[in-house]
Specification:
The protein has 252 residues and is an alpha/beta fold. The protein contains eight helices and nine strands.
Length: 252
């Protein structure tokens, strides 16, 4: 059965690992990469969600292997390093707890730094080691428009996403001579099960829309399309860049 949403990218023979793959942006990325022919390793904590994801991909001929694990677990990066082949890493997992800076506890700070920065760095480091054996690969870090701007009540989130934008540039410069590309995708507010309750607040939704020149929030497939492009050989000269899928928010 053909997939009408399949982008015109051929990833046949490639192995792609996607963290936070069971829902939202991660799920869309896993399905898109699988639809383009990649063998996808989908990583998330909930095995039932992962099973549903693999079944959905199989309906259109996609191949998804599932790892039900926590990316902060001690054996996760060792498992990446043990892979015989890895061509694409989509470093997607992350979290956010919006609140005024004066209310941020040390536990909240540590949680977000550990997941958004430390786990992302260690995953990228392990993936790079595997890719360097072959002399090619593409790492795509999912950041945010908040990695390019500041925003009230999002100080820790902005800090972590600015950090990953810096990691992207530094890794890109270091690994480019060895054939590994590193880029980021920085979305605006995207409609997902996680953000849906936020958008029920009319004042919040209107404030968000007022800052997006295209006057709408994004959808997960639009982010996945950007990721799939950067993962593919069509982006063979693109590294150290941040592809903003933000409807023009950061252009103002």
């Amino acid at each position: 059965m053909s997939n009408p949403n399949r982008p015109a990218f051929d990833l046949s023979g490639k192995v792609a690992l996607v963290t936070g793959a069971s829902k939202g942006i991660g799920k869309a990325c896993a399905l898109s990469l699988a639809a383009c022919g990649a063998h996808v390793i989908a990583v998330a904590r909930n095995p039932d969600d992962l099973g549903a994801l693999a079944a959905e991909a199989a309906e259109t001929g996609g191949e998804i292997e599932t790892w039900a694990t926590d990316v902060t677990a001690g054996d996760f990066t060792a498992r990446i390093r043990a892979l015989p082949q890895l061509d694409v890493l989509v470093n997607n997992v992350g979290t956010n707890k919006p609140m005024p800076i004066t209310e941020v506890s040390e536990d909240t700070l540590d949680l977000m730094l550990n997941l958004n920065v430390r786990a992302a760095f260690l995953s990228a480091q392990a993936a790079a080691e595997v890719m360097l054996r072959k002399g090619s690969g593409s790492i795509v870090n999912i950041t945010s428009q908040m990695g390019h701007i500041g925003a009230a009540n999002r100080t820790v989130y902005c800090m972590t996403k600015h950090a990953i934008e810096g990691l992207t540039k530094a890794m890109a410069v270091e690994l480019a001579p060895q054939g590994v590309r590193v880029n980021s995708v920085a979305p605006t507010f995207i409609s997902t099960p996680l953000t849906a309750p936020m958008f029920e607040n009319k004042a919040f939704y209107e404030e968000v829309i007022s800052k997006i020149p295209m006057a709408r929030v994004g959808n997960t497939q639009e982010v996945a399309n950007a990721v799939t492009y950067l993962a593919s050989d069509l982006a063979s000269l693109t590294t150290g860049d941040s592809l903003k899928v933000d409807g023009g928010w950061t252009a103002q």
